[in-house]
Amino acid sequence: MTAPRSQFEGAAAYVPDRPxxxxxxxxAQECRGCDLYEDATQAVVGEGRLGAxxxxxxxxxxxxxxxxxxxxxxxxxxxxxxxxxxxGIAQETVFRANAVKHFRFSGTRGKRRIHQSPSLAHMRxxxxxxxxxxxxxxxxxxxxxxxxxxxxxFGSGFTVGRHRGEPVPWPDSRADQAAPDWALATVHPSxxxxxxxxxxxxxxxxxxxRVASDALA
Length: 217
Hints:
8 helices
């Protein structure tokens, strides 16, 4: 039976002591901190270079990511690859992660499951995994890809438009032992794919990524 949102125990009890990335991936498969594990194929922990100066933080795994067990391997991830290249950021220099580690969906369209945004309760429950990833990677800055990633870091009042493309200090409200210096909000690549003017939306994403790159210099 699915627990009411107020009864989610959260992921803290499942995060291993002194974790490595391998241990995080293994432990996350046993996470029962919220109800999303019930329907997802697997937990999808972040991937990339430890010590990367830049972390890219999205919302949650999509349909393809849930099946593959890797972040950003679907259409939005492929567009993100192109945006990084256009911004002059080498893909191997970043760490990619999602605020929520299990795929939430609602129904299907053909064989593809339809994405459903995670709730604030899911974000809070999954927060300890992000804290552990930050402690491992120790990034200088984090690019928040979309509103859900922003809310997971800054809280429910976050909107992308308020500080889009502008590095802002990492919030003191989070108890991160290895807190980044700043975060920068931009759109999620999936919104570019849905845009009526895809080229303009893509150019905006690239522009924001360039600001993030410049902030690391």
